[in-house]
Amino acid sequence: MNWDDTTDTDATGERLVGPVADHEDQAVEAALRPKDLGEFIGQEKVREQLDLVLRAARARGATADHVLLSGAPGLGKTTLSMIIAAEMEAPIRITSGPAIQHAGDLAAILSSLQEGEVLFLDEIHRMSRPAEEMLYMAMEDFRVDVIVGKGPGATAIPLELPPFTLVGATTRAGLLPPPLRDRFGFTAHMEFYEPAELERVVHRSASLLDVEIDTDGAAEIAGRSRGTPRIANRLLRRVRDYAQVKADGRITRDIAAAALAVYEVDARGLDRLDRSVLEALLKLFGGGPVGLSTLAVAVGEERETVEEVAEPFLVREGLLARTPRGRVATPAAWAHLGLAPPRSQTPGNGQGDLFGT
């Protein structure tokens, strides 16, 4: 199946409800991004704890402890890193784990840091092992050993670093080795947002974008945003476009619902790929259990796409369950698609052995 012809994508070809930022998202987020903790919406516990860490550091006249932020894409990890720099009145350097493939890459960045500077390292779990081991000493002792030469004649030259704050962000905290996690003075997990919090995000973004929106319209967008501010802002922009072309520019519940119907984002935030997975599971395999590879073939997608793109949200919504015998639809999945489950789904009917796990 070719997804290029579907309407559940934006102008860049990415999924409209995908949590990963595209170039348009990055440009808009820069304009919408809150500048301090007081403006930041949601993540109440994280904000309270981080505020204490930063205020204490400022009172001591010291550099803030290293901070590790984990959670799904689009929840505000980059925004918080910039807020940390702003609160500490320090410059920020932004890089990512995949960009640091050699210890020398990291040494070059660390050696150019200013005192008190914030180094934001996105997707820190994807950094190379040699660079990771160099980072241990840099975080703890503010020192790195630069190796000059090779073989028996190689010499380690110690390089002193000014105190700095490392802010690491990861979507997969379990992949971080314990020695690295232990060197962060403050760790926080970013939770998905509640609809009421996303409504506040939508109202704030609409105000900054000079878009007129009522309470019901904001609630409609928030309810389809999969608990993610980035998706809420992206849906707001697409609804804004629809309202400008098809209506008077004002976003109401009916306008929001009509716009998102065009982009095939339903009332629970499922898009065409999500529904294709559910429909295949229900209609072709009677609700399962069915193996992941078989399910991927049935929807014309790669196994990794189904497992990493569609499944996490379906599981979180209680529409799909992963079992040792394969993927199984829940009663909520049948109800969501308006289908009646088979009269009997006996667990021991051999389906798991037929389709694999």
Automatic annotation (TrEMBL):
GO terms for biological process: DNA recombination; DNA repair. Its EC number is 3.6.4.-. Keywords: ATP-binding, Cytoplasm, DNA damage, DNA recombination, DNA repair, DNA-binding, Helicase, Hydrolase, Nucleotide-binding. DNA binds at R303, R322, R327. The keyword Flavoprotein does not apply. ATP binds at L32, R33, G74, K77, T78, T79, E140, D141, F142, R183, Y193, R230. It comes from the Bacteria. One of its GO terms (cellular component) is cytoplasm. Residues 63-194 form the AAA+ ATPase domain. One of its GO terms (molecular function) is hydrolase activity. Residues 338-357 are annotated as: Disordered. It catalyses: ATP + H2O = ADP + phosphate + H(+). The keyword Phosphoprotein does not apply. Belongs to the RuvB family. HAMAP family: DNA_HJ_migration_RuvB. NCBIfam families: PRK00080.1, ruvB. The RuvA-RuvB-RuvC complex processes Holliday junction (HJ) DNA during genetic recombination and DNA repair, while the RuvA-RuvB complex plays an important role in the rescue of blocked DNA replication forks via replication fork reversal (RFR). RuvA specifically binds to HJ cruciform DNA, conferring on it an open structure. The RuvB hexamer acts as an ATP-dependent pump, pulling dsDNA into and through the RuvAB complex. RuvB forms 2 homohexamers on either side of HJ DNA bound by 1 or 2 RuvA tetramers; 4 subunits per hexamer contact DNA at a time. Homohexamer. Forms an RuvA(8)-RuvB(12)-Holliday junction (HJ) complex. HJ DNA is sandwiched between 2 RuvA tetramers; dsDNA enters through RuvA and exits via RuvB. An RuvB hexamer assembles on each DNA strand where it exits the tetramer. Each RuvB hexamer is contacted by two RuvA subunits (via domain III) on 2 adjacent RuvB subunits; this complex drives branch migration. In the full resolvosome a probable DNA-RuvA(4)-RuvB(12)-RuvC(2) complex forms which resolves the HJ. This is Holliday junction branch migration complex subunit RuvB.
